[in-house]
Specification:
Length: about 350
């Protein structure tokens, strides 16, 4: 585990394809048709401070705060599936009332557990989370590396009796952090994404109708910006969708709730289950979809001609503030970031004024 290049081996699980065949979506209950890998179904339960332990183990340290076998197992799973859900735990609320403590416990606490409880709460506080919270792996490690630069003040202190882990100042965490979240969590290869892009572009060009999530109609409008942008986008096929509806204004568009035909080549799209693992995909983009449905007075599965759908969109939603800034422009947490600013995206307004088809 000391050589970070070994992580590449874990990332080959879904990167290779035989011929042009691409894997179908999995993790679906055949009876109900529902996926079973959602955010409320935690795949991994660990203490909050063990998010750090996993990084240290990956960086070559023998972290005393997590069993080596469990660390290897979790790292294996993170290295192959970015949609893995992690529930962060702590025993901080297991501490009994002082009257329930025996005389020996009062004078001889388990110092290691006291330190671990503080570590848990330090991590929760930095991440803006609480015990029991569940998030996808990629989201957690993006946030962790953004907000916790080193282990100083978490795993080790200068106070006598609180020195903590002797390995905390060895640089293992910092070495992995410098490589970014993708040193811990699976990231799709460029080769795989390109294969999906080719298939996706063919579908956009030839399918009798387009399947698009509602808020992507707004993304397309923001990008087009009244005619200022007319080039392919690396992380989606909105440009190709725009070309199709320009050629065929009456092409039917079916609105879907969740990932759509614009998503397949995105680095945040996980093909095996169709999940979005971007931080914005955690919950925010799903709310956008439903907010657009509500504004349009439609339901998932609604199908309209492209020109009619965009006419309805621009009639009912004058600004991205109504959807992407939640109507009030208040950003309440990392999960609920505002896209394009609290006052709305001027590109959307420009497209609304000029139209998509001119």
């Amino acid at each position: 585990m000391t050589d970070l290049s070994r992580r590449a081996m874990l990332k080959l699980g879904t990167a290779g394809f035989a011929g042009s065949a691409l894997p179908a979506l999995a993790s679906v209950n055949e009876t109900t048709g529902k996926t079973c890998d959602g955010l409320c179904n935690a795949a991994i339960n660990i203490r909050a401070h063990q998010l750090l332990s996993l990084v240290c183990v990956l960086g070559g340290a023998k972290c005393p705060l997590m069993e080596a076998s469990k660390a290897r197992e979790v790292l294996q799973r993170l290295g192959s599936d970015p949609t893995i859900t992690i529930r962060l735990m702590s025993n901080v609320d297991d501490v009994p009332h002082y009257t329930k403590l025996g005389p020996g416990v009062e004078t001889s606490p388990n110092a290691q557990e006291v330190l671990n409880r503080k570590r848990d709460l330090d991590v929760f506080q930095r991440l803006g989370l609480a015990p029991g919270d569940t998030r996808r792996a990629r989201y957690l490690y993006e946030l962790l590396f953004k907000r916790i630069e080193s282990l100083k003040g978490i795993c080790a202190h200068d106070t006598p009796g609180w020195e903590g882990c002797p390995l905390a100042k060895g640089g293992a965490y910092e070495r992995v952090r410098a490589k970014g979240w993708k040193a811990v969590v699976y990231l799709r290869s460029d080769q795989e994404r390109e294969q999906y892009r080719r298939r996706n572009v063919e579908r956009v060009e030839k399918d009798k109708r387009l399947f698009i999530r509602p808020h992507h109609l707004m993304c397309l409008s923001c990008w087009y910006a009244g005619g200022k942008s007319k080039s392919p986008r690396a992380n989606d096929t909105l440009f190709e969708i725009w070309q199709r509806i320009r050629r065929e204004p009456d092409v039917p568009i079916t609105l879907v709730e969740g990932t759509c035909m614009a998503c397949d080549c995105c680095d945040g799209f996980h093909p095996s289950n169709g999940r979005c693992v971007h931080s914005c995909g955690l919950v925010r983009d799903y709310k956008k979809d439903l907010d657009v449905f509500q504004k349009l007075g439609l339901m998932p599965g609604a199908t309209m001609k492209a020109r009619e759908l965009f006419a309805l969109l621009f009639q009912r939603i004058p600004s991205t503030r109504d959807i992407c800034a939640y109507g009030d422009g208040i950003e309440r947490s990392e999960e609920w970031k505002i896209c394009s600013g609290p006052d709305g995206n001027p590109g959307y307004v420009a497209t609304r004024n000029t139209g998509i088809f001119n």
